[in-house]
């Protein structure tokens, strides 16, 4: 009994993989639709300009895209890896505790219910307008419950652990939990008007505790760090587990892990001010935001370099193993994106970049190149181990990799050009000091870039479709494999 | 120390929390009071304006339009005076936006009129050839939710001391009183009176008829809000 390997229970992990696949596809599809809407506005009213137009309009769909990919797809991916990695690095099975299993299932199903309510409410236009924190207070409470259930799962597994030392991935999961809890609660402080006015108006409506400049400051402290702690730290948690596991290589440097982790924790939270440069927030806050953004390169690159050097001496795996390829390109995009961000945070650059498509480009090279690539690599690594089957097709993985990479390149290059073009045109003056362009000139000029971006996004979505097909095929008809084949390199059929 | 932390999850979590928490405290607290003080001439929103603001938020206008004029010549030439912190004192939530797919709207009330908005929201391409803004025709049909706007007025007066029914200093030395109704019934009447003033400059017969019978289509509230942005 004692010498038998632990039987891990992956049932919750599997559920979150299903939701990641489904919501990921829907969220990206909505993104592609609104990208085409910007290129060809007639698509906004594709089902007529009557009552239905309200629900096919860019303004309603945009928020559905951002929130479904961030909180639907990425968080599903994060949770699925938590319920896989957590057990393995802490050397404890969920099945050992009925309470933990219950928490896991409750976590998934309440999350699903919240997601459904969220989609309906955003379609209806129920929003408090703050980016990535659009949800009104009833949903905020639901999100809090989901988050606390995840926290209970983390605390429970750690409490029961056999491996006493917490592995690097666990550090990042803990940080994700704490930071998002803090940010979510403070940014969403609001007073429900229905109760404050003794029962007048919509019951779900609320008014923010902060006004104007303060509201902006709190919101971008949240907004920037929601990116940090939903789209960065849990993804680093993943790569710290999956890259060494898949490649059979040890992490290059413990000290670099340490430096990057604590550096990131300390520096990230200061940088939110770079979203509101030249606004009405105090100048010293703006300068702090700008300076800390540049310093942020250090811990970000620390993690990325640590990952890339983990492959030292084993670079041939990049050519032979598509999963490694996804992770190495992901790390590279992480480096790229964490250099681009600080450049945009420099005040003089920000004066041009802010309010333009360059920012959209930046978000997407990070999200598509780093976050989604890493989640796909994690799923490809986990699926054979969850189902005891080999990956259905290596060819599809390779094809998907190149189609999606091409999609990303088209996306960010077109958005760079669009953003810088527009930023420069807005400020252009003629010889008499008058504005050289009317606003509409700076919109029509972007048309070709919007088309290129939409093509790039469509390619990426097509690649994601291939990914889903490959994963579903693996689950249902991949060749059955022995446990001994699942040590490091994931088995895959040509 | 780090080895010790990695074996003691509670201490580890505490250390992480302290490390991430204090940046927010240092950046947000010191200027909190000063940042929320209104400048002279800034008034709270009227019932219909606030309802219009809700229409603006409901349709995520802020996804494509900013309300923040940066202190650059190119921006003040295009949009008017740069923004001051106190001008946002009654904005809950703030609506600065993060993307200018369309132009800034901070002072749109200074240079656009009711009929311009009416035509533009009905068919943007006709008013601004080449625009990528879609039409918002459902706003000419859907009713404005005045009740929720009134509930918000009551709430902000009660909790944040927003000066409804009090004299507010204006730039020319005079004072102005923004009225908040005593009852919901009265608030609906106030909003309708405001709507009638807007509709005088509108041509859409359905909207005119609606206001005639006491309904306020969303477009009327939205225009009231747009006109208040100065």
Fold topology:
The complex is a heterodimer of chains A (494) and B (230).
Chain A: H1 11-39, H2 53-56, H3 58-90, H4 98-123, H5 137-159, H6 168-187, E1 190-192, H7 193-196, E2 206-208, H8 212-231, H9 233-247, H10 254-268, H11 283-295, H12 297-310, H13 316-320, H14 322-345, H15 347-353, H16 357-387, H17 394-427, H18 441-444, H19 447-477
Helix pairs in contact in A: 1-3, 1-4, 1-19, 3-4, 3-5, 3-9, 3-16, 4-5, 5-6, 6-8, 6-9, 6-10, 9-16, 10-12, 11-14, 12-14, 14-16, 14-17, 16-17, 16-19, 17-19
Chain B: H1 2-7, H2 9-28, H3 32-35, H4 47-58, H5 73-79, H6 114-122, H7 124-127, H8 146-160, E1 167-169, E2 175-177, H9 184-199, H10 205-212, H11 218-228
Antiparallel strand pairs in B: 1-2
Helix pairs in contact in B: 4-8, 4-11, 6-11, 8-9, 9-10, 9-11
Q: Could you explain the architecture of this structure?
A:
The complex is a heterodimer of chains A (494) and B (230). Chain A is 71% helix and 1% strand. Chain A has helices spanning 11-39, 53-56, 58-90, 98-123, 137-159, 168-187, 193-196, 212-231, 233-247, 254-268, 283-295, 297-310, 316-320, 322-345, 347-353, 357-387, 394-427, 441-444, 447-477, and strands spanning 190-192, 206-208. In chain A, helix 6 (168-187) packs parallel to helix 10 (254-268), helix 12 (297-310) runs antiparallel to helix 14 (322-345) and helix 14 (322-345) packs antiparallel against helix 16. The longest helix of chain A is centred in the last third of the chain and has 34 residues, at 394-427. Chain A is globular. The mean pLDDT of chain A is 95. Chain B has eleven helices and two strands. Chain B folds into two domains: 2-30; 38-228, Cytochrome c-like domain (Cytochrome Bc1 Complex, Chain D, domain 2). Chain B has 230 residues and is an all-alpha fold. Chain B starts with a helix and ends with a helix. Classes of the chains: A mainly alpha (494), B mainly alpha (230).
